[in-house]
Amino acid sequence: MKATIQYVQKELNGLYPETEVKAFTRLILEHVCGLDYTAQVLMRESELNANCKRLISEIVKRLKEHEPIQYILGETEFFGLKLKVNPAVLIPRPETEELLNWISETSLQPGSFVIDIGTGSGCIALGLKKLIPESRVLAVDYSEETLATARENATINNLDVNFFQADILRWEDYEWENFDLIVSNPPYVRESEKLAMLPNVLKFEPGKALFVSDADPLLFYRRIAEFAQKYLEKNGWLFFEINENLGKETMQLLEKFGFREIVIKKDLFGKERMIRCRK
After folding, report:
1. Greatest CA separation found in the chain?
2. Residue 16 within any structural domain of the chain
3. Which uninterrupted H or E stretch holds 239?
4. The model scores a pTM over 0.85
5. Structure confidence by residue, pLDDT tens digits, 58-96
6. Three-state SS at 238
7. Residues pairing with 278 in the sheet
8. How many CB atoms lie within 10 A of CB 121?
9. Number of domains in the chain
10. Is residue 72 domain-resident?
């Protein structure tokens, strides 16, 4: 195993930070060989079988092309949940866990009805159901392929979430109930910001879930705010993840729609990454 570990680290050296390479190595050995970290330490001098070596070599080749490790392995961990991921859905980020922790500070009552708009892998919807087991959770996405992944994740984690295919930009075309909380991590990266993105994101993650035009970068926020004006209960909460460069503009948009108690929150890196308000 020692030789295989050295091979992985040599092949990926310079392409990724050293700490990330070590994390990749642990994940690969666990996923391919079924060895947890303790077993990896105890069996360091043992020889891996030929099949394990072949599979590891294939994974390393894909990592050298900057394909995300989560897509290669087909899964990731998020908020204590094991989630299936694939190129049809965004890979859940740590800042989305921060968003869920922020939501947990609100005083939602048992039986509250919440909606996650643009659910992707289902990470927010499932995290909400885990946080508030007595709540009703509706997860919405425009893509049936995406919803299939989210449904699978609900089954894997034994969480009762409802799913609905709808294009929120055309929300008037559907029938809705009233909600106590609306949350969304919509597309917000401007086309002009593509050049600053890492190749593993730009080449492999779904563009429709990431990018908006520079001409109307707050399109989804405006449409969801309009939706919330009609279907969010009085005193209900509206939460968004936001573009760190458009916090002021997002706040002004919500003020224009008459929302109150508007607060922007920074993530652990000091970036303005989420906003909340009340109707």
Report:
1. 65
2. yes
3. strand 232-241
4. yes
5. 999 999 999 999 999 999 999 999 999 999 999 999 999
6. strand
7. 237, 260
8. 27
9. 2
10. no
